Amino acid sequence: MNPDKLKDLQIDEGYKRRPQTSIWMIFLVVGGLTGAAVYFAWPRAEDTRRVVDTHKNSTDKTEVASTSSTPAVATKPRAPAKPGDSVLTVSGYIINRERIELSPRFMGVVNWIGVKKGDTVTNGQVVVLLDNAEYKARLHEAEGRLAGAKVNVAKADLDYQRAKQLVSQKVEMQKLEDDARLALDGTRAAVREVEGQVELIKTYLDWTIIKSPINGVVLEKLVDPNELVVPQSFGGPRGPSTALIALADPKDLQVEIDVNEADLPKVFLGQKCRVTPEAYPDKVYDGVVAEIAPEASREKGTLQIKVQIKEPDKYLTPQLSAKVVFLGTVPAKNE
Question: What is the pTM of this model?
């Protein structure tokens, strides 16, 4: 090879020698980083404790000792719901707490109905009159028997007084007086019997006058004038002519809802609620859990709950839907 070309390929001695200052700087930086890593990685006593926040809004913290060598995680207890907080919201239907159907006490014919559906009635107001001609006739008959029985009492009393006088004069034997006294007692008993029959017929006459037992509203008119009605059979279904009218108190309303099994722990008797009718979402009423059914529905997996509405007004119409918000939490077992 040409000596001149070999000379050109040789590296100058000045370029072979690296500056020593830059190498020492690299060693110092690497050593500092390694020392810092060792310092922070070295275990200390503070690393074996964790801090638990004892209050949601408090800055005071409590140190709790831990025997585990693993890093502790700060935990916060879940705050219980306050009495005014919502724990459950369910929809249901507004109902009357009691629906009263007036039924006759005996078979009869309707003479007059003084109300119609939607009318307001008061306690003691006459709403239906049944035909009473038969019982009026029976009353006249019984009153006639009563008058005759009283005449018999008067005659028996006269006989007794005469017999008593004759016996005292030694004209007749004591037996005459005793028989007269027993006869008088028998006529008096007959009077009491007839008086009882008169009272019974008067009671039947009173039953022909049907009165409202409550202050309320007529929900249904179930019969018409001149229609035959009969008493409702015990335990049987209501027929078309066993009830006269249906009444309810518009100021005694409840919301009937079905609560799922999973939500039952959130509901208890006496629990405060907020009721809002779906038709008037701006109206809110106070309520309280008044009834929890003793038996659940296996098919639906629910339990029926009734919430009593406090101070209902005209905006609450039975059979319309309403939303119920349950407030607060279930009380402790020792409360």
Answer: 0.64
